[in-house]
Structures are given as C-alpha cells and as structure tokens.
Design brief:
alpha/beta; 6-stranded mixed beta sheet; globular
C-alpha cells in the first residue's frame, strides 16, 4: 500500500501541492493562497543536461518573500545542478529563472546584487585573510560601509578573532562559515545554500543554525540543499524531495510529522510513496491531498 506524506493534519485537496508539469503550465499553484503576488524566485521548466545525462529534468518552482525551501535528495539527484542554475552560475539547457522578475540570462547584472550563494567551492582566496576576502567581495558589490559590515559579518559567524588569518590557515569549518559571511555580505534577497552543514563540528553547526534561523525574517527567500533531515526540517517553511532530476514530492513543512519523515523520504526516493515520481495513484490516509503525482508522461 502506498504511503501519504507524514502529516500532522489533512490539508484538504490541493493545499500546497505541486501538479504534474502538464497541468496548468509551468507555474506552481497556491502562491495566491500564500499571499504571494510576485515571486522572488521563479523557475520554469528547468532542464540541465550533461551530454546524455539529464541532471535536472523539468523543475518548476515559485517562492515568495519569507519562504525557506529545503531540498532533500540522494546523491546524483541533481540538487547542486539545480542550485547552480538558480544562482545564475550554470546555464540551463532549457527553461528559465527569474529573480524579482529579472531573467538571469538577460545580460543585465542587477539580479546579482539580489542573490547570495554558498556552494561547495566557497569562492575564497586562500592567500588573503578572512577580512581581506570580505572586503574584496564588498568592493565588487559596490558596498561603501565595509568597515562596519565586514566586522559585523565576521562577528556573527564567530570569526572576529580570525579576521587577520589567511584562509589557507583556517579549518574547513571556519572556511565554511567565512563563505557564508561572504554570501550574506551584500544583504541579498535570495540566499542559496548547497550543503552548508558539511564538515562542521557541533559547535560550528550550532553557529550556522543560528545564522540561518535569522534569515527567516520574513524578507529573505532561502533555498537550502542538505542531507541533514533534522536541521533541514527545523528551518523550512516548505520541503521538496528531489529524485532523478525532478521533485518527487513538495509540500508545506508545517504539515509534516517529523517522526515519520525519514521513512517517507526513503519511500519517495524509492518511488513507493503516493505523490512521488513514478507513483501511479493519489495520496491516501493521513494528509490525503497533500501531494499529487509527478510521474513521467
């Protein structure tokens, strides 16, 4: 018997669910129900191919101010490729991305000031100090209050005492926190985070969790890719499970029963859950109507 997503209560038909791609065009329903008149981030029909390999296969997404989407999924599901396209660092094979209505491929660079991204690379210069890295990026963004801003960001990520230390001398966890400070330096509207907890000790992970919680200020929009189910659910307002390049399931975090989510996650990944990619029937049981099938045509 196919399982419905673990839910604290039934939402009623259509609440927060995502339809098949062929229904209703590429946009996601429910934005009006959440009071979003114009999405901060809108992706339509995103596809990314590497030769014969399809890493991202027709993802549609719309997020408004204050929404925090956590994307879970197994290795090879296309999560980093998706995030790269949302950040403008990777060109889609097909489809489009808009930030505050501005296309990322328009040739205009105004959208870059609205996006902050933390990736596996970190984009830090090893020969520069922590402070010099932030000052360099601050000048690229045309920031004029660098003395105050750089000091505040280093203090917030627990690196004020390491301001004069060269990046090559910092631990992996310290570099990760510095990369987060870089991503947030220009106060972006959209924050994209690729596995931010990787390699962090418990103390550093706690600092990171506090900083990420502060991003839920009702103004910023966040997309985070992570394997950490607990931390991902704690911060999210919405949750997606990506499987083989598609969202096998997407829904509202408030409707998820955390005690049963790990089981449901594995069912979606294995294609056994109602509402997952390849599922042949609608959701049933508790939470009925929280997800709809996104099977292949």
């Amino acid at each position: 018997m196919e399982a419905a997503p673990p839910s604290t209560a039934g939402r009623g038909e259509g609440g927060g669910s995502e339809p098949g791609r062929g229904e209703g065009g590429g946009s996601e329903p429910g934005r009006g129900e959440r009071g979003v008149s114009e999405p901060v981030l809108e992706a339509t029909g995103l596809v990314r191919e590497y030769g014969p390999v399809v890493a991202v296969d027709g993802v549609d997404l719309a997020l408004g101010e204050g929404e925090f989407l956590t994307v879970f999924g197994p290795n090879g599901a296309g999560k980093s490729s998706l995030l790269g396209m949302l950040a403008g660092a990777l060109r889609p094979t097909r489809g489009s991305v808009r930030v505050r209505g501005m296309p990322l491929d328009s040739g205009e660079d105004g959208w870059r000031h609205r996006v902050g991204a933390l990736s596996h690379e970190g984009f830090l210069y090893l020969q520069l100090t922590a402070e010099e890295n932030l000052r360099f990026y601050g000048r690229l963004y045309g920031l004029t209050d660098l003395d105050e801003r750089v000091g505040a960001r280093l203090e917030r990520v627990g690196l004020a005492a390491r301001a004069g230390t060269r990046v090559r001398e910092l631990s992996h966890g310290m570099r990760q926190r510095l990369a987060l400070a870089r991503a947030l330096l220009h106060d972006p509207d959209l924050v994209l985070l690729d596995e931010p907890y990787t390699g962090l000790d418990p103390s550093a992970a706690g600092v990171l969790r506090e900083v990420l919680a502060e991003l839920r200020d009702g103004r910023r929009t966040v997309v985070m890719v992570t394997h950490n189910l607990g931390s991902g659910l704690e911060l999210a307002t919405r949750v997606a499970i990506q499987v083989e390049g598609r969202f096998g399931w997407i829904g509202d975090a408030l409707d998820i029963d955390r005690s049963g989510f790990e089981r449901f996650y594995h069912e979606v990944v294995e294609g056994r859950a109602a509402g997952s990619a390849g599922a042949r029937t609608g959701a049933g049981g508790p939470g009925e109507g929280t997800a709809e099938r996104r099977g292949r045509p």
